[in-house]
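Hi support team,

I submitted a single chain yesterday and got back a structure, but I'm not sure I'm reading the token output correctly. Could someone confirm the output below corresponds to the sequence I sent? I've pasted both exactly as they appear in my results page.

Thanks,
R.
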Amino acid sequence: MENAPNATKPERLLSLDALRGANMFFLIGGATFFMKLASFWPCEWTKAIASQMDHVPWEGFTQHDMIFPLFLFMAGVAFPFSLAKQLNTGRTSWQIHRKIILRALAFVLLGFLYNNSVRFNFSELRFPSVLGTIGVGWMIAALVFMHSKTAVRVLYCVVVLLAYWFTVALVPAPDTAPPDAFTKEAWLDRGTHLLNPNENILRNFTPDGNILGYVDRTCIPGRLLMTTFDGAAEIIFTASVTAMLGMFCGAFIRRREQYSPYCQVGLLLLSGTLLILLGLLWNQVFPINKPLWTSSYVCLAGGISIVALALFYLVIDVLKFKRWTFFFVVIGVNSIAAYMIRPLFGLYQTNEFFFRGFADFFTDKATQELVMAGGYIAVTWGVLYFLYRNKIFFKV
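Hi R., thanks for writing in. Yes, this is the structure output for that exact sequence:
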């Protein structure tokens, strides 16, 4: 925890805080609010919005599947700014490396606590986590970023995404694959159908048939997210590409003396659009899949993240339309607190205390649930505002 004397740093991007807050809004009750709104006011557009407020079970993509990669992407955007600041203040390479590693370990610990609280029934604990994946994936990207030039970073991303595709598509899970899956003929068959997936390859994209699930079942102790599959531990390399995409954008935005802001926005929009198209094209042979964090998913989510960053950067930092951002900035500057607030604080009880009486004025259940959903957002935002006003920022 840091008791910060100043909430604004010289190079801090207000657009990044606002985008982070807009992203985290859905985790502090925004998604639930829109689902309750669809019940209160059922029409085509509210139902369409509500349909985006939950993860797809396996393959596919919704807005809710953007929250995780966008958070990781923005951690990547912030790193070039943080690295430059540390170098300017005289931190040594060893100090920076130690901070990167300790930050990753802190994310792993917070993720473990978020999943399990403080319990000691080890057979029921879930060890992989969203925060753990963010921490380790970001750490890998940060170390690669620090020790390579742009061309090597790009090569790293390309190699990881292609290698991951080949591995998941070609290597079946040994415990669920048919007996002949590892014969020479089977390997050749899968190799020749890589761009035209047949049943032998499509089987490797299922929850039980993919190689990541086999690693989960045989190597990871405790409870798995989907009983036979978790994936959060093995996707760190493709997740690191998501973080690296953010680092590319952060490093590019820092070069404001070489490019005009409008040129930066245009190039960001172009690169984001191209990544989205690449993800949709790759989806034809390697399905967009968040649990597997497939290469097509990296491209699609990364492209959308870049477009979102470009639009926020244009409106807030370039055109200086800032007043509307305050609600989201309060959330964004304390994103770790916003994420951990549900398991650590009894805000459901606080919400009941303040809003249950008002909700009970209404007789229909849909209205009551909508009021309580809005109340939970208000209570959570109120806690974050208290931290903001007192310049208390939880940082990892």
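A quick pointer for reading it: Confidence is low (pLDDT under 50) at residues 1-10. Let us know if anything else looks off.

Best,
Support desk
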